[in-house]
Amino acid sequence: MPGPPWPSSGARPTRCSTDLRVSGDLPGPDDLSVPIPLPIPSERIPAMSDSENPNLRSARLEWTGEGLAFSGRAGGSDPILLDGDSRKGPSPMEALLLSMVACMAIDVRMILEKSRVALDGLSVEVEGERRGEVPKRYERIRVRFLVEGPGEEDRGRIERAIELSEEKYCSVTHTLRPDLDIQTDFEIA
User: Fold this and answer.
1) 103 close to 111: Cβ distance less than 8 angstroms
2) 161 in the same domain as 127
């Protein structure tokens, strides 16, 4: 049986940390210090079926020709780079963490906006602990929201927004295994 798809020179980490910061304008492609070639063309990715289902999502992934790096695009979005070696972009497991906290951050931001809680900034830190053996799925994920702007009087609304995201709205967390231990907390800065 062949070995794992990564180089045998080093063991894969069992813990992974990723930091997502959402505040102000995000940098555009011209702001990147090192250009990364992403070969997927910019046109919309066609669905694999002729379904008119509005809930159907599609994506395409292509090997860049270098190591374990792949360029992916969903719908008409800009391409992203995923790298199994974590040299040119996040690994798929790190991207999963980013997807989860991005989903939760969007929920929290929308809920707080509807609750009229003004934000100056919102950052999310996430740490995922993986099993030691294959499949090295996440067993525990810890999420910390760093909320800038609101006062202590908004603490209950922030807590409720995070709870609603985790328990009701975040599609990514609900796509993961139900026995995954997800722990959340927040800090007002």
Assistant:
1) no
2) yes
In single-letter form, the type of residue at position 60 comes to R
Residues 83-110, mean pLDDT to the nearest whole number:
95
Residue 32 CA from chain centroid, whole number: 20
Q: Are 101 and 169 in contact (CB under 8 A)?
A: no
Per-residue pLDDT, 67: 93
Q: Which residues face 128 on adjacent strands?
A: 16, 141
Residue span of the structural domain in which 49 resides: 37-87
Beta bridge partners of 17: 127
Q: 148-159, pLDDT tens digit by residue?
A: 999 999 999 999
Classify each residue of 161-184 as buried b or exposed e, where b means 16 or more C-beta atoms within 10 Å of its C-beta: bbebbbeebbebbeeeeeeeebeb
**What total of structural domains would you count in the chain?**
2
**Could you tell me if 150 and 71 lie in one domain?**
no
Are 70 and 159 in a shared domain? no
Are 187 and 145 members of one domain? Answer: yes
